[in-house]
Amino acid sequence: MSVVPVTLLLDENISPKVAEKLAREDRIDACHVRDRGLLAATDREVLDRAFDEDRVLVTANVNDFLKLAHARDVHPGIIMLEDGAATRDQQIRYVRAAIAPLAGVGDLTNKVLWVAPDENTRVEDIPPL
């Protein structure tokens, strides 16, 4: 797999092993909130860290992060995994499914890339409310 110039921060509802596998096998700059000492952080703090580090946030916490994205003037972009009960292997497949469309989208600033359980993706602009 070719290197995609994207950096990811995986939320606590995504397995830390997903970040490790993406880094090792796909050469993607992915880290987990655990790696940043953010396991007890609020969702707002996690999104702030993603923004500060210029990382796209990956989460299955769709409702809370959608509200936070709307509440900010600028957010770094979010990959929303619609299947909140996905296994680790499914999470890996979902994130990999999101990587290919990123090449065509370019910058995900103020956008959400949705990944459905069938691995179909769609991009949505999320401007502030």
Q: From the helix content, strand content and strand pairing, which structural class follows?
A: alpha/beta
Number of helices: 4
Low-confidence stretches: none
Q: How large is the share of residues in beta strands?
A: 15-25%
Instruction: Report how far the terminal alpha carbons are from each other.
Output: 38 Å
Q: What is the average of the pLDDT values?
A: 90
**CATH architecture name:** 3-Layer(aba) Sandwich
CATH class: Alpha Beta
- The count of strands amounts to 6
The helix-strand sequence is EHEHEHEHEE
Spatial order of the strands in the main sheet? 2-1-3-4-5-6
Oligomer type: single chain
Helical content (DSSP H or I, runs of 4+): 25-40%
The number of domains: 1
What is the CATH topology assignment?
A: Rossmann fold
Biggest β-sheet description: 6 strands, mixed
**What is the global morphology?**
globular
Q: What Rg, in angstroms, do the CA atoms define?
A: 13 Å
Offer a concise description of the structure.
By secondary structure, the protein is α/β, with parallel strands linked by helices.
Question: What would your notes on this structure say?
Answer:
The structure is a single chain. This protein has 129 residues and is of the alpha/beta class. It has a single domain, classed as Rossmann fold. Helices cover 38% and strands 20% of the residues. It contains four helices and six strands, in the order βαβαβαβαββ. Helix 3 links the parallel strand 3 and strand 4. The chain is globular and about 35 Å long. The mean pLDDT is 90.
